Amino acid sequence: MAYGVTDGQPMVRTRFAPSPTGELHIGSVRTALFSWLAAKHAGGQFYIRLEDTDQERYVAGSTRRILETFDWLGIRLDGGPDHATLRRMKTDEDYPGALEDGSYQGIPGPFIQSQRLPVYQQWAGWLIEHGYAYRASETAEEIEHMRAEAMARKETFRFREEMRLRTDVRPDEPHVVRMRIVPRQGVTRFHDLVKGDVAFENANLDDQVLIKADGFPTYHLAVVVDDHLQGVSLALRGDDWLSSAPKHVLLFQYFGWDMPQLAHVPNVLGDDSRKLSKRHGATSVFELRDQGYLPEAVINFLSLLGWAPGEGDEQNVFTIPELISKFDVNHIGSSPAVFSPTKLDWLNGVHIRRLSEDDLTQRLIPIVREAGIALDTAEQLDKLRRAVPLIQERMKTLLDAVPLIDFMFFDIAVPTREALTGQKMDEAESLEALRQTRDLLAQLPEFENAPMEQAMRALADRLHLKPRQLFTIVRNAVTGKDVTPPLFGTLSVIGRAATLQRLDRAVGVLER
RNA sequence: GCCCUCAUCGUCUAGUGGACCAGGACGCGGCCCUUUCAAGGCCAAAACAUGAGUUCGAAUCUCAUUGAGGGCACCA
C-alpha cells in the first residue's frame, strides 16, 4: 500500500484531478470524498490537481468553483488553495495562487497541468528515445478517412504505427507523439482495488496520442507522469477510465516506475437509474447547499453511495471523524449507486438534530434573512434563538425553518370564521373559548410554556372541551396555520402583546 | 461491431461455500406516544436477474444467457 516515502515513513497520498470544465458533478465529488477519506484514514495526504490540458473545454471560473466545493464540504487540502484567500475571490477569478506554488506540504507542484508542459515534453522525449513512443504527422482528416475505411470493412479502427502515411517525422514539423504498445501481443493485467483483477489484450489497445499537435499532453501521459512525480500512492477515479487503464499501466512499466494502487469507482446514477444529470435536480453540491442541506449530511450521504463499513457494522449515521476512522477503499462496492433524495432528507434531518442550538441558530441566520425576515436587532435574533429548539426536530432541510417561524416575526392574515370554529363546536362556543383564553393569557403571571399549558388545560376542562378542540382554534387564531411547532412554546416566542392582539382580532372575527 | 465492467428488498447496502426459509438503513403501511406537525418507540410487507455446472451443501465458485453501464478522440 505504501508507495511514496516522506521522511523515511511510508505515506498514503491521494489526489483528486478534475478538469476545469464547469460544475463539479456529484459523482465526481463522491470520488473526491472517497480519495480524501482514504488518505485521512491512513494519516496521509490529499491534494488537488487541475487537469486543464484541453484548452478548448476550459471554462473560466470553474477552478474556483471546484475549490469552493471542497471549502464548503470542509475538506481541507494538503496541496492547493488557501481557503481564506479563496473566500475573498470574485466569481470570475480563477487559478488561486496557492495552486501555482512550486510545492506544497512536500508535494511537488505546480498543480495545474498547463503549467507543467516542459515536464510532459521531457518524458515524452524519454519515451521516444527508448522506443516506447514515436512521432506521427497524420492530420485529423487523414485519421478520419482511415477510420471510415475501417468501418466500411466492419473492422474496429485502431491507429497503429504501421499505418503511418509518413515515416521519419522530424521534431520540427507539426506532429503528435503516440505511444507504442509493447509488446503488441500479450495481455496487460492489473489489480484494481474495486474491480479486482482486470486483463486487456494488448492487441486491442491503440497507439494512443500522448502529446497533441499543440504541444499539450493528453490525459494519459499527464496522469501517469504527475501521479508518479507527485508521489500518488492510491489513485481513485471514475470507472469510465477503466478501459484506458492498461495504457497507463504500460506507461508506468515503460518508465520503470512503481504503480500507484488503482481504484475505479462506479458512477452515481439518478432516480431513473441513468447517469445523474441536470434533469435530476441536484447535480452539484451548491444546489444541495442552496436547498438547505448540511455539509455533514451531504458527506455522510455521499459516503454511503457505494460504500458501507461492512464486516457486520450496520451504522448509517456517521460524523466525519467516524468516517475517517472507518473508511476502507476495499469496501467500496463495484456496482453503480442511485442517488436517493429521500435518504438524503432523512440524514439531513438527523444531522440537524445533532447540531447544538447555537450552531443551528448560526446556520439559520443567513437563510432566514434570505427569506425576507429581518434579524437586525438583538430582539429579533433572540426570537430566532428561542424558536430554534421548537423547530429543530421538525426540519429536514434548513429551508424548512422559514414556514415554521415566519408568523413569529410577521403579522398574520386575519383568520376565517371556519378556522376559528373548533371541531364539534359552534361559533358561539368557539367565541367564548377564545375570549376566555384571551383573559387567561392576559392575566397569566408568567408568559411561559409550562404555566401556559397548565392553565390552558385547566381552561379546556372548565369549558368541557378536549385540549385538541381548544388548542386548535387558539393555534389558528394566533399563528394563522394549522401546523406549527408546539403551541405554548410558540406563543411564548411570539410574546404576550402580539398573542393578545391576535386573539382580540380573532374574537372580533367571530363577533361580526 | 469490438473491448471492459456491473447484477441481493422500490433505494443504499451486509453477506467472501454451511451460522441466510438472507441482516441493517431510507422510503412505504400499521400501532403506540401526542394540542397540530415532527421526533421517538414497536410491528409488518419487501430481494439473491435467468439457466446450467462444481459441491454433501451456493447469494457466495465456474460458464452461458439476459439486462444495464462504460470505452473504442490530437476530451478528460
Q: What features would you describe in this structure?
A:
This protein has 512 residues and is mainly alpha-helical. It has helices at residues 26-41, 62-73, 83-88, 97-100, 117-129, 140-152, 219-229, 245-255, 285-290, 295-303, 320-326, 341-354, 357-370, 378-391, 401-409, 417-420, 427-443, 449-462, 467-479, 487-494, 496-511, and strands at 4-6, 9-11, 13-16, 45-48, 103-104, 107-108, 133-136, 176-179, 187-192, 196-201, 209-211, 234-238, 261-265, 268-269, 337-338. Helix content is 45%, strand content 11%. α17 packs antiparallel against α21 (496-511) and α18 packs across α20. The radius of gyration is 32 Å and the shape is elongated. It starts with a strand and ends with a helix. The structure holds one RNA strand of 76 nucleotides.
Topology:
Elements: E1 4-6, E2 9-11, E3 13-16, H1 26-41, E4 45-48, H2 62-73, H3 83-88, H4 97-100, E5 103-104, E6 107-108, H5 117-129, E7 133-136, H6 140-152, E8 176-179, E9 187-192, E10 196-201, E11 209-211, H7 219-229, E12 234-238, H8 245-255, E13 261-265, E14 268-269, H9 285-290, H10 295-303, H11 320-326, E15 337-338, H12 341-354, H13 357-370, H14 378-391, H15 401-409, H16 417-420, H17 427-443, H18 449-462, H19 467-479, H20 487-494, H21 496-511
Parallel strand pairs: 3-4, 12-13, 14-15
Antiparallel strand pairs: 1-2, 5-6, 7-8, 8-11, 9-10
Helix pairs in contact: 1-11, 7-8, 10-12, 13-14, 14-15, 14-20, 17-18, 17-21, 18-19, 18-20, 19-21
The structure holds one RNA strand of 76 nucleotides.
